[in-house]
Design brief:
Helix content: 55-70%
Largest sheet: none
Number of strands: 0
Structural class: mainly alpha
GO molecular function: acyltransferase activity, transferring groups other than amino-acyl groups
Mean pLDDT: 89
Strand content: under 5%
Shape: globular
Order of helices and strands: HHHHHHHHHHHHH
Number of helices: 13
Keywords: Acyltransferase, Membrane, Transferase, Transmembrane, Transmembrane helix
Protein name: Acyltransferase 3
Radius of gyration: 21 Å
Distance between the termini: 27 Å
Number of domains: 1
């Protein structure tokens, strides 16, 4: 198989092909590990919501964790949709419409349903137990009000919808290949137009459906609508990856990645400290956030993809890490919540700070989530799905 063909190989977690593009395998695994650290931080002072929140470290109590979480949110799920779009495009080119749909319903739909009905309630039971909340009434309320995917499998539900729409459009409509950039100049114009569209659309979307507002994520997908346009753009870009990757890659990717993170951190700190004092109203920060979020997604995401593409270490196989990454994603909430409660109980107030707790829970969470995935696929029949 030629180098060009190898770059376009389907990179599903379970593949029958011998040829792998290891840097994308490793990038996906790294992003899932980052999801685990992200959720670990939410309990100990980071900004955002999570199933368990430490009574010793209220949300937003740690500047470092809040910045860490805010920057993660700009790109890590978008990058997972980007990679998934690539996987799906190559898979769809090799299968019939019916075979593709059945495979996606099996590999995304079944884990989504099982997680929502069995694993997520178990996560909540552990949290309720730690808070001395009556479990049976709370569990009854959970099932009575269940209206869609819950917990991290919102990603699977949304990806399943994207995949079914994509393969159906692909079947009945001629692909608009003329829209795919065929030069660096055209790529830059296309990227600028798309990012600007997402910025404007996301700003108005947040006015109607704020991230931290009273509205729940959209059922039945469990999707935060404020980020939906970014995910759609990322998925479409992933579909086109084979054609546009040469324009995505940047030179000195390590330096570019460091500068992107530095820009994201400094600009966020400056905005948080200056905008409220300068304007005393909310809309300037909302505009800043819409622009900042999508620019971080593009520049960090592009630099990260280039870094994994270029580095000698990331282009080598990382053992069986990729094989268990999907299962680790499915099991990580159960692992993380258990570790958070355990570490909080052992650490108590002030004895172990939120940042240190995050590092401990995140590190152990990565190890135990992959271990749980190793056990999961040994259940009869699971290996054919996960």
């Amino acid at each position: 198989m030629s180098g060009g063909q190898s770059e376009r190989t389907a990179l599903l977690p379970r593949t029958i092909l011998d040829t792998r593009v290891h840097f994308i395998d490793n990038l996906r695994s790294t992003l899932i590990a980052l999801v685990i650290f992200h959720h670990a931080a939410l309990a100990f002072g980071g900004i955002g919501s999570w199933h368990y929140v430490s009574p010793f470290h209220p949300a937003e109590s740690s500047l470092i964790l809040s910045i860490f979480v805010a920057i993660n949110q700009t790109y890590f799920m978008g990058m997972l949709f980007f990679l998934s779009g690539h996987f799906s495009a190559v898979s769809a080119s090799r299968k019939t419409w019916a075979a593709f749909c059945v495979d996606k319903l099996k590999r995304l739909g079944i884990p989504m349903v099982v997680y929502t009905l069995l694993i997520h309630p178990l996560v909540l039971v552990i949290v309720w137990w730690s808070r001395h909340t009556p479990i049976l009434p709370a569990l009854s309320t959970y099932y009575r009000t269940l209206d869609g995917a819950r917990g991290p499998v919102w990603f699977l539900a949304t990806l399943l919808l994207f995949d079914l729409i994509y393969v159906t459009v692909r079947k009945f409509l001629h692909p608009p290949t003329f829209l795919i950039p065929n030069s660096a100049a055209r790529y830059r114009v296309t990227a600028a137009v798309c990012i600007t569209t997402v910025i404007v659309g996301s700003y108005f979307m947040r006015l109607w459906h704020p991230v931290l507002g009273v509205r729940r994520p959209l059922p039945p997908l469990g999707l935060q609508l404020a980020y939906a346009l970014q995910y759609i753009l990322a998925y479409i870009a992933g579909i086109c990856l084979s054609s546009i990757e040469k324009y995505l890659l940047v030179s000195h990717s390590g330096r570019a990645l460091a500068l992107a993170y530095l820009f994201a951190t400094i600009s966020l700190v400056v905005a948080v400290n200056l905008i409220p004092h300068a304007f005393r109203i909310e809309w300037p920060f909302s505009i800043f956030y819409a622009v900042w979020n999508e620019l971080c997604f593009y520049f960090i995401g592009t630099a990260l993809h280039s870094f994994f593409h270029d580095s000698a270490h990331t282009t080598k196989r990382w053992g069986n890490t990729a094989r268990y990454s999907y299962g680790a994603y499915l099991m990580h909430a159960l692992v993380i919540v258990s570790l958070q409660i355990l570490v909080d109980t052992a650490g108590g107030p002030g004895l172990v700070y939120g940042l240190l707790k995050t590092i401990v829970v995140g590190t152990l969470g990565v190890i135990f989530s992959w271990a749980a995935a190793w056990l999961l696929i040994r259940i009869p029949g699971v290996a054919k799905i996960v």
